[in-house]
Design a protein that fits this description.
The chain is mainly α. The chain is about 65% helix and about 5% strand. A two-stranded antiparallel ribbon has the order 1-2. Strand 1 and strand 2 (about 100) form a beta hairpin. Helix 1 (about 15-25) crosses helix 3 and helix 2 (about 30-35) crosses helix 3 (about 40-50). The chain starts with 12 loop residues before the first helix and ends with a helix.
Length: about 140
Amino acid sequence: MSTATDAPKNIHQGRNVKRFREMLGLKQEALAIQLGDDWSQKRVSLLEAKEIIEDDIIAKVAKALNVSEEAIKNFDSEMAVNVISNTFHQQAFINSTGTFNINPIEKWLEVLEENKKLYERLLASEREKVELLKNKN
């Protein structure tokens, strides 16, 4: 059986069970059914209120939710938010090939410059047509 000193600080295992259950779209009644006859919605509710959950119950719940026991024991939402906020910031997106800075103003200016070049080519083509027509007459 685990004790309060076994779990890292700020980890509320019951809340973690609730988070995983909700991510899977399960109601407490559905989880109770998966856990077996001696479980009820009320017991699942009480479980989700517990800060520390016994290892044997975590094993049953993890199997029912199809997640690892370690996920329930160690998931820290604050740490997850920190990782996400440090990974993504306003103008940089990080992926497997590196960092890409996307500046919409620069992209808009590139498009405007390209349009300007296209317009100049179209204008030159029209001038050529006008010259050809003048020369025909």
